[in-house]
Amino acid sequence: MNKTSGEKNREVHSSDALKIPLAKEGYPFMLIALVITLLVFWVTRSWILGGVFFALFVFVVAFFRDPKRVIPSDPGAIVSPADGLVIIVDKVFDSRFTGTETMKISIFMNLFNVHVNRVPATGKVLKVIYNPGKFFSANLDKASLENEQNAVVAEGPDGQVFVFNQIAGLVARRIVCRLKAGMDIRKGKRFGLIRFGSRLDVYLPVETRITVKKGDKVSAGSSILGYWS
Fold this sequence. Notes:
The protein is of the alpha+beta class and 229 residues long. The chain has helices spanning 5-18, 27-44, 47-63, 143-146; strands spanning 77-79, 84-94, 100-109, 116-118, 123-131, 149-155, 161-168, 175-177, 184-185, 190-194, 198-205, 209-210, 217-218, 224-227.
């Protein structure tokens, strides 16, 4: 019996719904966790111990999930580069990247947040600055200055200079950033991740109209932080 186009479309949508998008950087960790789980069960023959390691494998898979996001179409909208909790919204003097007063927004990612990072605004990468450092808890103020971090300094559509800075946390030990100086970037596109708990700071021009506040929960690529003035 031939299927109608509507039935075929429903099948496709159902198939897509079963797929779990995963960040490719997580494949080695998922494979290691799966192999350890199988070895533990094979050696111990214990469902309890095997179950513990299987739960660890599930956690690793969940950590590297990479769900699709609906990107706001408004060209003036600036989106969150990370999932997590807004812990700082403040006007500060940025002496490290722009040399000007900026609006700083800090987003803390716990172990259960999606850790794939997305570009906050369309523009061009001016430079990428990597600094090795310490591993204080990412929710502490000194993490912005002393932890391992990777800052992307970019120029917006009308010459606005903005920065998004990946900061490693207490558990995170590896920052992944695929951007390089001279690259064109598009709002909402994936550009990297931080493994196992971290923070992301955004520096925007002081005239930016900020629409988030401390305590807000945001999603990378879809939550709006503010608008170019």
